[in-house]
Predict the structure.
Amino acid sequence: MAASIAATELFGYFIEVTEVQRAAASREATASIEASAERWSGIERAQGTEVRAREAVDKFLADPIRPDLPSKGL
């Protein structure tokens, strides 16, 4: 008994999308990196503000009568 092999034919078009896909991936990666940099920038600013606030509190606690902070008056 001979084994029969079914023939398969494909009809259609071949479209090369490698460059298009590579460019889209590059744009997406660039946007993601830029968004991450913006978030980190905000985090670093917040950390700097926290450090300055802690330093101000430390100065006040060291000399609560006459701290090196501007007086707002009472």
Summary: The helical segments are 18-62. The two ends are 108 Å apart (CA to CA).
